[in-house]
Design brief:
Number of helices: 5
Strand content: under 5%
Number of strands: 0
Largest sheet: none
Structural class: mainly alpha
Radius of gyration: 16 Å
Shape: globular
Order of helices and strands: HHHHH
Helix content: over 70%
Distance between the termini: 41 Å
Amino acid sequence: MIFQIILVLSIRFFLFDFPLFKGFRIYLSKKGYIFWKLLRCPFCQGFWCGLGVFLASHPISLNLSFFLGMLSFGFVTAYLSLMTAAIFYPLINKFEEIYAPFDNHQ
């Protein structure tokens, strides 16, 4: 379970915060409200990444236990995603100012 949570947070960071995909995220955010909201909401990002990891790592069964486990995992990872964004965004910005100063000149 811990591995899956760390995997979700890593995937979320890679897709939604990694500087390499910044241009693509800006492009997508202009394509509609759903993309705009998803690309700016760490809670939403954590929820959907959590659902993806849960579905990829558990055999799918159509019962209430599976559904509640999936939703629970999604909401736990959504909350943790929001918390890590709130804690780490200022640190990431400071890091990028120091170690990636060329991004500011574009």
